Amino acid sequence: MPTQQDDNGLLAVDIGGTSVKYGYWNQQLENSGSFKTPKTWAEMHDKLLSLPSQITQPIRGVAISLPGSVDIKKGQISGTTAVPYLNGFAIRKELSDDFQLPVTIQNDANCAGLAETWIGNAKDVSSVALLIIGTGIGGSIIQDGQLLTGHDHFMGEFGYSILNGQNKTLSDLGSPVQMAKKYTRISESLAPVDAPQIFEKAKQGDKLAQNCINDMVHWLSLEVYNLITSFNPDRLLIGGGISIRDDFLEMIRNRVGTLLKQKGATVTTDIDRCRFCNASNLIGAVAQFLSEYPTLLAIK
């Protein structure tokens, strides 16, 4: 379990496809902020290096959450990612040299898992699977405190699961963003309609909204069922903005419970939401840093 002494802090950064979040960690997250994801590495590089000047406290290291397949030993990412220019070079070494500080990197969904097992809704169990639902869908698996990443650092990319006969993936079928685009298209709405609006329309009796939500929940429930029966974790946590909805979580629980009974799968995995939402990747990046440098922050 990571530990940290007082009066020592980290710069935590979460790089995403649309925005970059950052904050200062010293027992808790402080001085949080964000900026729009730059279009080039040169712009990103300059933005990142300017962050310490915006944080007045001493910084002893930099903990970064990234999209893509992250190789923490090589210090780089590869494969499909929301920020393509981050791929294929030693990003950790470059930033460590420029910051003149230790730098760690980890996949964003893995960071969410680390945050939950450290101080979140999985801190009391031995095994947990996370399903993070957003524009795309990812996740992570942690067993006995160890993050499982796979041979190609691709474990947890559940959005690539193919769930129907048309080769559509879970990210195609289960993303709230894709669900909203579907509703907007079919309804011929003049303006884009987002997922929260569709849930509200469904409550008001809009049949198309109800059908779109039901379809999304159907595919997500199949994936949750597959994860539970494949990995049999103590707990499965659902993250992403949609997870804060009690009605959504209850629909998933009910449908997965029905599937388990229908198929005779006698498992008792808890299904819950993540404790952390927007801050999960930042907190998990800190957990990754503390696991790699367990004594650094104790040095005065």
TrEMBL record:
Pfam families (alphabetical): ROK
InterPro entries associated with the record: ATPase_NBD, ROK
Keyword check for Transferase: yes
TM ranges: none
Source taxon at top rank: Bacteria
GO molecular function ontology, one term from the record: kinase activity
Keywords: Kinase, Transferase
Keyword Ribosomal protein: no
Similarity comment: family membership: Belongs to the ROK (NagC/XylR) family.
Identification of the protein by name: Transcriptional regulator/sugar kinase NagC
Gene this protein is translated from: nagC
